[in-house]
């Protein structure tokens, strides 16, 4: 018999009762800033290298964004699995299962992080060549990627530790830890790059900052109150829970990796247009990613709220949480998009004074940001499905819709119209196709879950 959940710790959130909008906004805003701070690690590298070393060094960092996202998605996706499993147990009031899931998630993060670093770092040179990086920026690009891949254990630990806190509704603690690490990263970037370390210095600064962030959250888990408290003595990995985390998390990671695989091919197309296009894409990405941080935050909010309520058997509240997440996401995304459109040129000029880089950056911002509402449906509906424990079907839909559309466009359309505008048009097309398919999948799955629950009551 499940034990009764103990008194809530200071930052725990009651997701099972009361109005949803205020709680979801309070959950999502710190989460959006957390994702933003993660992106600022790369943005700080681009900015500092652009100012101290010029366009070539800036391009060397920007051209690796898709490869890094491909690997990091493994951790963020698997961490979502931990979030769902722990949140389900919290919703059920099963304290022993919560504690076992927390221990399992932490140990799994170490296994995945060390394994990924050992496997990926030796392949950095191959990945850099696969991207078709020009020779003038190949060496710094390869060095930057290799050193960042060696820091994957710290990135893995941070994502899993943050997922543990989020499963109980605490998004502020990961935000504070990452905020401190972001300031450290900026300071180390300036220190290392100004002393002539170039791309290598930027990568080492990022690794050191993630290590500090992971240690801060680890210390927090040792001191926190309640069922998610981590006790190093007697820790063990529960095989059944680990497999469930991976069954939910790995498809979620694959869904993110699909975007990255398609974007690697897109990056190849951009690289073929020259260093200015590469630098412009990198600069525009660091701006537009702020909007995606909001979209993704509400998608993860839907995952966590649906997870706890599904664990408690409250299907009606699950559906209401999904609708609320969508509405809040549209409102926040609209406000942020307006700011980006209004100040696009000055923001791009912070990264580069080259008029060609700024002009091309504006093209990317218009082509991507204008169609971000399609991505709202995609992230929130797939996030809600993961909250129900349904992870593989959304990943499959994304694989076919996003990856298939973008690869087809890059290999069939772009060779005939080799322009930056043509490369950017693929974002809106792939989002439209995939969002429609995801909406149909969501409606079918929710109807099926409701039918199963009704059958169980009969």
Low-pLDDT residue intervals, each spanning 5 or more residues? 1-10
Number of helices: 18
Helicity level: over 70%
Helix and strand sequence = HHHHHHHHHHHHHHHHHH
What is the CA-atom radius of gyration, in angstroms? 21 Å
- Tell me the total number of β-strands: 0
Biggest sheet descriptor: none
> What does the overall shape look like?
globular
Distance between the termini: 23 Å
Determine the structural class based on helices, strands and strand pairing.
mainly alpha
SS strand fraction: under 5%
- Calculate the mean pLDDT score and round it: 84
The tally of domains stands at: 1
Oligomerization state of this entry?
single chain
Write the layout of secondary structure elements.
Blueprint: H1 21-52, H2 55-62, H3 65-92, H4 95-120, H5 124-130, H6 135-150, H7 152-167, H8 172-194, H9 198-223, H10 239-271, H11 275-311, H12 315-342, H13 344-349, H14 355-369, H15 372-387, H16 392-413, H17 420-424, H18 426-457
Helix pairs in contact: 1-2, 1-8, 1-9, 1-11, 2-6, 2-11, 3-4, 3-7, 3-10, 3-11, 4-7, 4-10, 5-6, 6-9, 7-9, 8-9, 10-16, 11-12, 11-14, 11-15, 12-15, 15-18, 16-18
